[in-house]
UniProtKB/TrEMBL annotation:
Record protein name field: Uncharacterized protein
Organism: Marinactinospora thermotolerans DSM 45154
Biased composition annotated in UniProt, kind: Basic and acidic residues: 19-47
Stretches for region Disordered: 1-84
Length: 84
């Protein structure tokens, strides 16, 4: 998405997006860092704590249920043969 729409980040530097817990890893985080985007996440043992770390727990507790709710309402979690 960021490669297709570079204006999403260039027009708004220093963004902190909410992301799915499955988005992680040094290559992924490196691409975000190149665009001055900070991803809130738990700090690894080998990393210094990032400035927003104390806030990542509460925000994830809010974002994940909202995501699950919309996924359910939109039927995105169901397989085609499952009844509503």
């Amino acid at each position: 998405m960021l490669a297709v729409e570079p204006g999403l980040t260039s027009a708004r530097p220093g963004q902190t997006p909410a992301g799915d817990k499955d988005h992680f890893g040094h290559p992924f985080e490196g691409r975000l860092t190149e665009r001055d985007i900070r991803l809130p996440k738990p700090t690894r043992d080998s990393e210094p704590e990032w400035p927003g770390a104390p806030l990542s727990g509460p925000s994830r507790q809010v974002v994940e249920p909202v995501d699950e709710t919309f996924t359910g309402h939109l039927g995105l979690g169901r397989r085609p043969h499952q009844a509503a």
